[in-house]
Design goal:
The chain has 312 residues and is an all-alpha fold. Helix content is 74%, strand content 3%. Keywords: Cell membrane, Disulfide bond, G-protein coupled receptor, Membrane, Olfaction, Receptor, Sensory transduction, Transducer, Transmembrane, Transmembrane helix.
């Protein structure tokens, strides 16, 4: 009888980033440019690595998978957010909301593990260079990649399992630009305090384990690099600094969103924008502007393209 008194919520209302019409127009233009930059930047990495044989190495195999994940991570909510800037009523269906939460945790968990795989790759390349290609064989690379997706899927499925049987009877207003799991759980028609703790613990534990693995691996790598010749150390530090920058940009918002539960939604909104939009934009910038091999490969492809035009 009690459940019969609850009306079923079929859609949620997203409040977005701002109620100001002028700001929404500004956001529409700005985020459209940013999203185009995300797609083009990550496509540039995909095309460069695919068509330049010098980059057919384990490191760049993992890098193009990171670019794919970044593009999808930026696409699960950003296009809808951009369109919603032009709408007065910003709604999303229950299944659309569920899909956003599922893919966010799937891709987020997968990217965490992929960053760990990239740290393992750097450890082998720097600490065991003579055995690098033997250790990081195609079989090992595929295993690392599949393991990353498996962890992401298990993590996301465990999070979504909490949602399946929750009753929603209103209000149905989500104070964000996409369906974020902690915010949606709070709208349920029953006490979800314990459930919120489980969600935060699940995401926080995965983030903490991956972060500690990365921290230990990079400490070992840095210790090894410091005892090498100056020339080799400079190149190793250059590659390593790009990885550490990406890891910092990815994990910092995760820590604040899931490990440090803010009560102010405005802070969460800023961090969510950074996590889902600006990190996928900055990754290709970091890996192209700070990576001499990628820049050299882009020049080779451009030169081949120009020469082929002259030949025709």
């Amino acid at each position: 009888m009690e459940s019969a008194n609850h009306s079923v919520v079929s859609e949620f209302i997203l409040l977005g980033l701002s109620k100001s019409q002028n700001l929404q127009i500004l956001f529409f233009v700005g985020f459209s440019v940013v999203y185009a930059g995300i797609v083009l930047g990550n496509l540039l990495i995909l095309v460069t690595v695919t068509f330049d044989s010098h980059l057919h190495t384990p490191m760049y195999f993992l890098l193009i998978n990171l670019s794919c994940i970044d593009m999808i991570l930026a696409s699960f909510a950003t296009p809808k957010m951009i369109i919603d800037f032009l709408r007065k009523q910003k709604t999303i269906s229950w299944w659309g909301c569920y899909s956003q939460m599922f893919f966010m945790h799937l891709l987020g968990g997968t990217e965490m593990m992929l960053l760990v795989a990239m740290a393992i790759d750097r450890y082998v390349a720097i600490c065991k260079p003579l055995h690098y290609m033997t250790i990081m064989s195609p079989r090992v690379l595929v295993g690392l990649l599949l393991s990353s997706y498996a962890v992401g899927f298990v993590h996301s499925s465990s999070q979504m399992a909490f949602m399946l049987h929750l009753p929603f009877c209103g209000p149905s207003v989500v104070d964000s630009f996409f369906c974020d799991l902690p915010l949606v759980i709070k709208l349920a028609c029953e006490d979800t305090y314990l459930l919120q703790l489980l969600v935060i613990a699940d995401s926080g534990l995965l983030s903490l384990i991956c972060f500690l693995l990365l921290l230990v691996s990079y400490m070992v790598i840095i210790y090894s690099v410091r005892h090498r010749a100056a020339g080799g150390s400079a190149k190793a530090f250059s590659t390593l600094s790009a990885h550490i920058t990406v890891v910092t940009l990815f994990f910092a918002p995760c820590v604040f969103i899931y490990v440090w539960p803010f009560s102010r939604y405005s802070v969460d909104k800023i961090l969510s924008v950074f996590y889902t939009i600006f990190t996928p934009l900055l990754n290709p910038i970091i890996y192209t502007l700070r990576n001499q091999e990628v820049k050299a490969a882009i020049k080779r492809i451009r030169t081949r393209h120009i020469n082929s035009k002259h030949t025709l």
